[in-house]
Amino acid sequence: MTDRWAQAEERFRQREAERRYRRNDQAWEEYEDDTTVIPRYTDEDYDEPVDAGRSRRAAPQRAERGEPRRGRPQRAEDAQRRGSRDDGLDDGRSDAAAARSGRGRSERGESRTEERAESRSERQRSAPGRGRRSRAASRKAAERKKRRRNLWLMGALFVALFAGAAVFAGLKVVKMFGAPEDFAGPVGPLVVVQVHPGDTSNQIAEEMQKKGVVASSQAFFQAAVRNSNMSSVQPGYYAIPSHSPSTQAVTALLGKSSRVGNLVVSEGRQLHDQHDVNTGSRKDGIYRKIADASCVGTGTNQKCITYDQLDAAGAGADLAALGVPSWAEQRVRDVPDRNRQLEGLIAAGTWDFDPSGTPEQILKQLVSASAQGYESTGLLQSGAETKLNPYQTLIAASLVEREALPQDMGKVARVIVNRLADSLPLQFDSTVNYALDRTEVATTDTDRTKRTPWNTYAMPGLPATPISAPSLNALRAMENPEPGTWLYFVTIDKQGTTLFTESYNEHLRNIEKARQSGILDSGR
User: Fold this and answer.
1) Beta-carbon neighbour count of residue 34 at 10 Å?
2) 336-369: pLDDT as tens digits
3) Dmax (CA) of the chain
4) At what angle do helices 359-375 and 286-293 cross, to 10 degrees?
5) Host H or E run for residue 505
6) How far is residue 497 CA from its own chain's centroid?
7) CA–CA distance, 484 with 507 (Å, rounded to integer)
8) Alpha-carbon torsion 390, 393, 398, 404, what sign?
9) What pLDDT does 345 receive?
């Protein structure tokens, strides 16, 4: 009897514990889950079997301690089966036990009501905190998602760059080991190509490709290194047929006829043509020399800048477009004859110009290069002793060039400085001949008395412009004249022997020696 009562009491306690700690599904359903990281569990998730005996033995102890029941939650049908089974076993219990059970159920009902109220109030108090935690968790989840997306994008970009680099490297390798692109012909019209001082074969090849002469610089370079004469190529301009096979382009570059725009200006040469009084032969001026050097092509396809085009361009009013240096600009503007304003500004020497340019561009290229050459001698710093400005020094140097041989240039420069200092007219025959179309060494009395902006017999001081293209040696001589007191000089023979003196009477005797040699005989 005692065992039955003990078993009934044990079962009662189990049912009460299960009812007391049963999960409140309604409360869970009221909970708003706004996160993606907190899982939501349902009763169906507990599918693992639980040791029923161990659970029944541990349930009363956990109930007394106020702990929730562990293991799989009991379903409603399990509770009903247990309740009906327990009722059948305990039909004969006493009234006292029934009364005691009724009081217990009343007390437990009140207790459960109070617990539900407390649970709701606790959820209300903790709701703001849960909301904040949920929003923070959402932000973190979004950040993690964004980081993952950025990592994917960076990875895709890296893969694309790597693939592009691999393709580029592959193409370079193919070009390196494959045959370079080359023209097969026929060739096109001539193209002017410049070879700069110090250019290598590779740099020349790049210029050839840039101008459309060859299909690729690699093809020209390979053809150039196989030709031992490439080392003889000089700086300058060359006319090469466009669309040429690389070997033909190299051959054309090395040919003598391909060189264009190469100009040689001799010392003392003037801009315009002159004719000899005795022979009538023409002495080509600098403009004529430029016109001849500007020709590109042969036969009917030849193109040249003409003498008249250069003469007209040289008389232009835009001095900057002609390359006139600043130290000469004002005196050039004051020149009485515009056709002679560039006289002396194209120096003696060997020059290269681009023949494909306009007449103004060609003159500017030559005048600018000549000015740099003049300035390299110290022209802008000279004049402390001679009392001459740079343009006046250039004028005097042109007189030295026309009057003296190289060994006498320093003495002639001193005669100029001494006579200007004493306000004596220079009386140079070269200044008389400058304005004449037909010239000779000797001059007539009529020519010497004719007043022109250049005749130093008819006026004191220097001519209006240089009278020729001076060499750098003549310019240096004028910048640093040889020390001396000479005031006169005369060339006494056709070999160029020149005598200097400070005495006028001795000078007259020297002139007589010149007459006896026949150098002063006139053909007029």
Assistant:
1) 11
2) 999 999 999 999 999 999 999 999 999 999 999 9
3) 180
4) 120
5) helix 504-517
6) 59
7) 16
8) negative
9) 97
Cβ neighbors of 234 (< 8 A, separation 6 or more) are: 195, 259
Q: Which stretch of 89-93, 126-130, 143-147, 436-440 has the lowest confidence by average pLDDT?
A: 89-93
Task: State how far the Cα of 126 lies from the Cα of 230, in Å rounded to an integer.
Answer: 93
Q: Over the Cα atoms of the chain, what is R_g?
A: 57
In sign, the C-alpha dihedral spanning 70, 76, 81, 84 is: positive
CA separation (Å) from 479 to 234, 405, 474? 33, 17, 9
- Please answer whether residues 501 and 465 qualify as being in contact, where contact means their C-beta atoms are separated by less than 8 angstroms: no
Per-residue tokens: 315: 């008389």
Placement of tokens 């680099």 in the chain: 165
User: Among residues 389, 384, 365, 378, which one has the least CA distance to residue 475?
Assistant: 378
Strand partners, 238: 193, 259
> Residue 524's pLDDT is what?
60
Mean pLDDT of 100-126: 55
* Residues 281, 284: Cα–Cα separation, whole Å: 9
Round to whole Å and give the CA distance between 371 and 327: 10
Q: Sheet holding 236-241: strands in order across?
A: 190-195, 236-241, 259-260
Grouping H, G, I as helix, E, B as strand and the rest as coil, residue 357 is: coil
Distance between CA atoms of residues 133 and 188, nearest Å: 81
Per DSSP, the three-state class of 382 is: coil
Asked whether the beta carbons of 244 and 252 are under 8 A apart, the reply is yes
